[in-house]
Amino acid sequence: MLTAGTGGADPVLAAGELAVFSHPGGGSPLTAAVDLLRGLDLPPETTDAEAAWFGFLGYDAARDFERLPSRHPATDRPVYEFFLPEVLVRFAEGRVIGRGRTPAAARTAAEQVARTLTGPAVAPLGRVAVGAGRFGFAYDEYVEAVRRARRHILDGDVFQLVLSNAWTAPATVDGLRVYERLTAINPSPYHFWHAGPRFEAVGASPEPCLTLSGGKALIRPLAGTRRRGRDEHADRLAEEDLCT
């Protein structure tokens, strides 16, 4: 497996499979992945990145913790797929970290990746083809979904909803090339590419969901709210606060 990502100015590439945790969801709590990491005997100087899973966590993981309706249509993608990398490349530091059952195995893995990175550039993908796409919602269905969302807000069931409309299309394209192009044209500070045995995921986000470092949690949500002020001046101050 391979996972690449940029978080600010710290691009990272993780490769290999010292351990894999993949499940379609249901009956295998996500906490099992945390418990496995907690049970590893790691050296005291191990960094957070070296003691972390890399991979993919889908929205449907919430169904392991909440009573939610089944998803339709169902997908054959795992709800979560994590791996402990055999090699971790930290480009900002110029470091290639190898790991394995023995020091020799770790060194060999790191040297192989280092040779690949310093070798000739990968040839560009020749053919890119995208077929006809379709939206997950028809126009009338989307309008009705908005009406239902408004009712749930007025009834107090929720305070915010995101009505995404998925667009899908068959394509012949290499995920890594999509990732490279996305990082070049999209100013988002967070990009990711995950290549597993059955699927690839490529994306960009202007906000991290959650970052944990040194026992401190950090969130930087794109959306936010403030109470209405007593006058126009107070509203303007709240607006400026949301922009910072």
TrEMBL record:
Any Pfam family: Chorismate_bind
Keyword entries, A-Z: Lyase, Magnesium, Metal-binding
Domain of life: Bacteria
Entry-linked InterPro entries: ADC_synthase, Anth_synth_I-like, Chorismate_C
Name of this protein: Chorismate-utilising enzyme C-terminal domain-containing protein
Annotated ranges, domain Chorismate-utilising enzyme C-terminal: 140-242
Organism: Amycolatopsis bullii
Record-linked SUPFAM superfamilies: ADC synthase
Known cofactor(s): Mg(2+)
Phylogenetic classification of the source organism: Bacteria, Bacillati, Actinomycetota, Actinomycetes, Pseudonocardiales
